[in-house]
TrEMBL record:
This is Uracil phosphoribosyltransferase. CDD domains: PRTases_typeI. Pathway: Pyrimidine metabolism; UMP biosynthesis via salvage pathway; UMP from uracil: step 1/1. Catalyzes the conversion of uracil and 5-phospho-alpha-D-ribose 1-diphosphate (PRPP) to UMP and diphosphate. It catalyses: UMP + diphosphate = 5-phospho-alpha-D-ribose 1-diphosphate + uracil. It comes from the Bacteria.
Length: 213
């Protein structure tokens, strides 16, 4: 099942960079660059229908009607791994604000545990772009979506690089209005709730903090 609001990028550049990202031999320096490149491609796609307004612009030659963004856009990286996607999104949308949320998964239960929340209580953004390269069980994203709904955001868009089908189905079922943009959907999770085939632990690979195996 793939819901109406799930968008899977189908592009040769996405496939090419994803293959290097998955490769266990890819070093953190290159891994970071690949996360950034893929985040930019996903970011372009995820903003295709963002609200716009007409403005009159004076060129050196004449006046002409142009379009500009017409929405308060919040970039919401999920620590840690989501940090790797912030710079390319800010490159695309320099006027966006960045609100950090910190979560980690309990290793035994795979349940998300919140440890940092920088979201304000009021003045919700019009659009929230949630950044997290991995959507596995979907538990972390569901916590984030609930928090953004409490803030008052109505247009929530999740940008992930790889989603596992079970987690994607769960989020799409529980939050049918949330739009989800991914570069790939992998079929399953292993006994530790890691995505299969996946790419391992995205946060550890971005920040070069390998855990003992
Ligand atoms: O869909 P879920 O099952 O909730 O799993 C996905 C979450 O797991 C990873 O974070 P992790 O706990 O490894 O934290 P980190 O980014 O600090 O490494 C990933 O970046 C997501 O936030
Ligand atoms: O496969 C997975 C699952 C959760 N988090 C990751 O970084 N990778
Ligand atoms: Mg991690």
């Amino acid at each position: 099942m793939t819901a109406n609001h799930v968008f899977i990028l189908d592009h040769p550049l996405v496939s090419h960079h994803l293959s290097a990202l998955r490769d266990r031999a890819t070093r953190p320096c290159e891994f970071r660059a690949l996360v950034s490149r893929l985040a930019m491609l996903i970011g372009v796609h995820a903003t295709e229908d963002i609200p716009m307004r007409e403005v009159e612009v004076q060129t050196p030659i004449t006046t002409t009607m142009c379009e500009q963004l017409n929405a308060e856009i919040a970039i919401v990286p999920v620590l840690r791994a989501g940090l790797g996607m912030v710079d390319p999104l800010l490159e695309l949308i320099p006027d966006a604000s960045v609100w950090h949320l910190g979560l980690y998964r309990n290793e035994e239960t795979a349940e998300p545990v919140g440890y940092y929340d920088k979201l304000p209580r009021s003045n919700a953004a019009d659009v929230a772009l949630v950044l997290d390269p991995m959507l596995a069980t979907g538990g972390s994203i569901e916590l984030v979506v609930r928090r953004l709904q409490r803030w008052g955001v109505s247009d929530i868009r999740v940008l992930s690089i790889i989603a596992a089908q079970p987690g994607l189905d769960r989020v799409a079922r529980d939050f049918p209005d949330v739009k989800i943009y991914v570069a790939a959907v992998d079929p399953s999770l292993n006994e530790n709730a890691f995505i299969v085939p996946g790419l391992g632990d995205a946060g550890d690979r971005i920040f070069d903090t390998p855990q003992s195996e």
